[in-house]
Amino acid sequence: DESNQRSEQSLVAMKGDVAGDNQKFICVFQIGLDDDEEFCLVKRILGKAGNNMRRIAEECNAKVRLRGIGSGFLEGSDGREANMPLQLNVSCTDYESYLGAVERVASLLKELYKHYRRYARSKGMEPPDVKVQLEEVRRDDLNLDLLAQKAQRSASQ
Prior knowledge:
Blueprint: H1 2-9, E1 25-30, H2 41-46, H3 51-60, E2 63-67, E3 87-92, H4 95-122, E4 133-139, E5 144-145, H5 146-155
Antiparallel strand pairs: 1-3, 1-4, 2-3, 4-5
Helix pairs in contact: 3-4
């Protein structure tokens, strides 16, 4: 189980040394599966009455948002789901909360993937090789801001 602990810690970079107030720590988990009426992927991620998301948000003082196709999360002026694969965004204002939220989401997804593989096998389908994937998109403690970089790139084109 030691390798399991190591992989948990390597999901995100070590704490950076850039200090400041109102820091942001944001990462995006790619779910890697589509919602399925029978398996109810989105409902399982959110939890009964949204309890999974609420618990992580409250315990870790985090914003946790499921976005993309099938998420049910409507955004923008036209109030539609973002046209992107299902993803879970985690946002915190301090490193310790961020680490806790990332660990809880990773644990939730690992459990979900285990159930999905079992479900796929029960349906005679080849179980997909899904694993927890996340990208850190903003870390003020590391001067990392991929969102701003993307915005600058698209503005200069």
